[in-house]
Amino acid sequence: MPGFRELVTASGLDAVTEHLDETLVLAALRDVHGLSGRLERVASEKDETFVLHTADARHLVKVGGEGESAEDLTLQTAVLRHLARTAPGLPIPVVRSGVDGADVHDIAPLDASGPRLLRVLSYLPGEPLSGSEADPAPFGGYHAQLIRALAGFRGENQERTLIWDLRHLGALAPVLDTVDSADRMLARDVLAEFALHVRPAGLDTQVVHNDLSPHNLLVGSRGALTGILDFGDVVRTAVVFDLAIALSNLLEVDAADPWAVPLSWLRHYLRIRPVAQEELELLPLLSSARLVQRALISSWRARRDPARAAYVLSHASRDWTTARVTFAGLDAAAERVLAESRR
Predict the structure, then answer these.
(1) 3-class SS at 239?
(2) What span, in angstroms and rounded, lies between the C-alpha atoms of 64 and 99?
(3) In contact, 247 and 258? CB cutoff 8 Å
(4) Do 211 and 299 contact (CB within 8 A), yes or no?
(5) Pairwise CA distance, residues 171 & 2, whole Å
(6) Residue 30 carries which DSSP code?
(7) How far apart, in whole angstroms, are the C-alpha atoms of residue 41 and residue 154?
(8) For residue 47, is pLDDT > 90?
(9) Any bridge partners for residue 238, and if so which?
(10) What is the pLDDT of residues 48-76, one digit of tens each?
(11) pLDDT digit string (tens) for 81-102?
């Protein structure tokens, strides 16, 4: 299994990416895509993301970080095109090729330490589910549709090494010293339970989104799904990991019942895509593991790249608190998950 440093490098997190001059990005868009307009920068984890406002449309513009590989971006493009064929009813970004027919163009300046890969995608309307009043539960059904549509996907680099793949949770042990003692103890306990009970080789696997959250789902004015975003973490891994990631993003420790919304999401998911009982039993532990994974990686990244610290830490601000509550009630939560699957 890869170690922490190998995971960091393979996941494109080793480099601290400097912002490109926006005039350079605009010139590249004109030259390779025939597009011109006004750029609006959007906060992102490791790449540079913009909305391009043209005279009659909007486009999503992404420029890869200095550590991102062309192979990873090619995988994302292949996944999006596969979904356009297998699930045309799902609102997925459409890849716009350049005037030369290529999907990716290196626009790095001469003094850059690595490539800066430009892509243009369709802009999807709506607001994030996370900030809307829409009920998240029915979106579990869309999640299951996405999994079914990806089941037959085969592509180069789908077995990529990715730090966000839960199978590599144990490799985060070197990061434990970057957090305070109480969080360190919790992380050690979660890593130990994961190592004891989770056998990734025996789980159902396929290519999955691997980062489905209310931040990556868009809804319209009536709460209908208008977009599924951010396929940057797609990888072939355990399907139950992907489900646990979604559930972990729905846990709310301030609610009277922190598991109410995740279980409702699961109910809609299971109506379309069944999950084996032995995998269902793992969901509370895997959800805790995901929260600890994100908290540890975010802590490390904030120190590594202070310019992006606020964005990176914003998505992990409640992870330690949520993981502590969730981990303390694993058995009761597992019983509720199984009960939900029998409804």
Answers:
(1) helix
(2) 20
(3) no
(4) no
(5) 7
(6) I
(7) 33
(8) no
(9) 205
(10) 999 999 999 999 999 998 878 899 999 99
(11) 999 999 999 999 999 999 999 9
Q: Which amino acid is at 155?
A: G
**Token pair 């050690």 is at which residue?**
188
The residues, ordered by sequence, that sit 6+ positions from 95 with a Cβ below 8 Å of its Cβ are 77, 80, 81, 103, 119, 120, 121
The count of residues in the chain is 343
Measured CA to CA, the distance from residue 64 to residue 66 in angstroms comes to: 7
Q: Where are the beta strands (DSSP E) in the chain?
A: 38-42, 48-53, 58-63, 95-96, 105-106, 117-122, 127-128, 205-208, 217-219, 225-228, 235-238
Start-end of H helices in 87-176: 139-150
State how far the Cα of 39 lies from the Cα of 36, in Å rounded to an integer. 9
Closest by CA to 140, choosing from 132, 55, 148, is 148
Which stretch of DSSP H or E encloses residue 341?
Answer: helix 330-341
Cα separation values, 120 from 75, 81, 126, 213, 219, Å? 15, 14, 19, 23, 22
DSSP state of 106: E
Residues 182-190, mean pLDDT to the nearest whole number: 97
